[in-house]
Amino acid sequence: MIDTNESYQIIQLQDGRSLAYAEYGDPIGKPLFFFHGGNDSRLEAALLHETAQQMGVRVIAPDRPGYGRSSFQPNRTFLDWPDDVAQLADTLSISQFAVAGHSGGGPHAAAVTYAMPERLTGVALISSAAPPGSSNKGMHPMFRMVNFFMGRSANLHRRLTQQTADQVLNTPDKFFKQWGMMSKADGSLFQTRPDVTEMITAEMGEALRQGIDAILQEHPLYKRPWGFALADINLPVHVWHGQADPQAAPAWSAYLVTHLPQAIPHFVPDEGHFSVLVNHQAEIFEALP
User: How far, in Å, CA of 105 to CA of 128, rounded?
Assistant: First the structure.
């Protein structure tokens, strides 16, 4: 069953949950499933629309459980996600596809790669989180503090997450100004591309449609064992990272490159967390068959 709306569609999963998704780019192009960041939603993929349209890429962007319009899934793990993606692909009659994950979407793309390599044509991890054991070198102290409290103080983690949510929803100009002070590359992007700032404001606001519970559930997953070993992923994986990213430590992607058997690194100087995705999306698409 597919329920169609202007900015999203919904399928009903086998366990009764709803999974929402949006499509961008070329509707008859090469299929790419894009997995949003940990504070983001399906609407993040709007950043890719024009380039995907020009390059013949069909971008399918689902909301993860509890984000946007997808049903919350208690006690979920990274390895629950591949089954949701498989059901969505089957519903859309897509047998082969590429996957890309930005930020917190990176571990989810890795989980899909581990669970169903036979269905994938290409993999990209962009500004991705890394498993426990990776270094936080290069991370801004503010993000380092949030990262520290993810799995140590549930109350403080909730307070910090709610403060961020309130800023996104009520004072986005202040939110982007503060982010820009922490990241020169992203700050420049926000100042010169108001369209990008508008899209990020909208997609982060949509992530909060059901509140912050999905974010609070997902963040600690990054710092626990992921449920699979990077060494068991035996496909080529393109790893993109801005070397001036203060949120996702560049050392995380260095860890991924070291531990993925067929990693292909793309370390970009002077790019930040969102700027590497916005400014290098054409190269990312080109690298995915």
Answer: 7
Instruction: Report the C-alpha gap between 211 and 183 in whole angstroms.
Output: 27
> What H or E segment, with its residue span, contains residue 268?
strand 263-268
What is the Cα–Cα distance from 96 to 156, expressed in whole angstroms? 42
Cβ atoms of residues 248 and 127 within 8 Å = yes
**C-alpha gyration radius of the chain:** 17
pLDDT in tens, 172-213: 999 999 888 888 999 999 999 999 999 999 999 999 999 999
Q: Please enumerate in sequence order all residues whose Cβ is within 8 A of that of 32, keeping only pairs 6 or more positions apart, or say none.
A: 25, 52, 57, 58, 59, 60, 97, 98, 99, 100, 122, 285, 288
Output phi, psi for 160, to 5 deg: -65, -40
Domains and CATH numbers, the chain: 2-287 (3.40.50.1820)
The model carries a pTM of 0.95
